[in-house]
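So, does this match?
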Amino acid sequence: MKRSRELREMLREGRGYRCESFRGAGVRKARDVLRYEIYVLGNEDVLWEACSALGIPRRDCDFDRMVAEIEGRFGEGAEALWLATERDARENYCEPGEEPDEYEIPEGALPIWDLGDEGALFAWRKWE
């Protein structure tokens, strides 16, 4: 996956931002986040991008295989979270006067979908 300037910035700084007022349902389990993205929002591209990031050939790429690979790497409680740069979270997702929440991007986190200034979807081991 080619990494956007925004994704490189988040990885370099080790943190990303989001505003919970914008679709912040509190759902973090990777399986549930990805199911919502693909089957509710219709973002099938996340399936292909995630498989690519995980090294799964397109011909073998399906939801179950993708989730199994994520959970194999990060455990059954693997989490997925959309993050953006602070600037982009403020501009694209925060309500007027709302401050974005800062999240540490853990070592070993895997960006599975990169939308540049719209943010990136990360998968990682559940925080304890």
